[in-house]
Amino acid sequence: MAFADLTNDFVFRRIFATHPEILRGLLNDLLDRQGDQAIEAIEYLPSEQLPLAVGAKLSILDVGCKDRAGTTFVVEMQLIHHPGFVNRVVYNACKAYVGQLKAGKWYDSLTDVVAISICDFEIWPDAEQKARGLDVVPMLSRWNMTERGSGNSGLLQVQYAFLELPKLSERRPDTGASQWAWLFVHAPELTEVPADLPVVFREALALANKATFTQEELDAYEKVRDEIQQVLAIAEARWAEGKAEGKAEGKAEGEAAGFTRGKVSAILAILAARNLHVSPEVRAHIEACDDPATLEQWIPRATTAATAEEIITPGPPLHP
Asked: What is d(CA 137, CA 316) in angstroms, rounded to the nearest whole number?
């Protein structure tokens, strides 16, 4: 028995975008919703009721839903730690919150938004936290606004949860949230479903069993897997190249220029890996850009855009 990688776009959506009970189990575990606070039922957001799109996303995977109380949950899996990642998470969560308000409606019609990011990288590495004299951030961290003096956490309208998969301990966990992390990390290594896994985890693994895939589904899975590996390898190489070039120039402005060149190279390499046509005009526009903030927006766009032209389209980042 062989299992597919749950971080793969095709598999992630096969499991969580079409089986609400499994998604509900994931949400309850990651958000520690128990008893009266447990999420009892969810309804997928309209934008997530679309057919699976093969290779449509390489590094940003989303499933959106609402519970009976109206709370919106957006779950994403991020494979590339691109610059400004946390800022983008905050931006999109706040955008989802304010986007609920329709013309003529009162502000009390707004309901909470919870953004959940499952990351295949460390956002707050333990060594860096310790070096700065700060507390270590656990593998699963949950965030909301609190009042500094009293610690009152009454502002819960927009909340965040981050699951940093590299922080998973070597010992196999036995609690819900950590078990999900264990599945995301180790599913491809399994040869059978562990008998002691709770039902919801067994159901998720059953859907990742490659023996149940049609040939078309296997082709889709392998295509996305190969694209992800290419993009990750190219992006990491280009960013490292840009950093090295900057350091070689020996001054701050040179290092900044090196980072900029690395980002430009990463964008073009990602487009090449995805076999997207880049016109001379679009290439010249990308290569001429020397604004780091703009390039940081274009990198995640390059992994999701249907055409190269979409990357340089004016407006907010093209992340749903």
From this structure: 30
Beta bridge partners of 143: 160
Exposure letters 51-85 (e unless 16+ CB within 10 A, then b): eeeeeebbbbbbbbbbbeeebbbbbbbbbbbbbbb
Mean pLDDT by 10 residues, the chain (320 residues): 90 92 96 91 68 40 83 88 83 90 86 94 92 94 93 90 95 89 95 92 95 93 81 67 59 56 80 81 88 82 81 53
Model pTM greater than 0.90? no
Give the CA count within 13 Å in the CB-facing half-sphere of 166: 13
Cα(88)–Cα(82) distance, integer angstroms: 10
Q: How far apart are CA 306 and CA 271, in angstroms?
A: 10
> Tokens 């290439």, residue?
283
d(CA 212, CA 186): 19
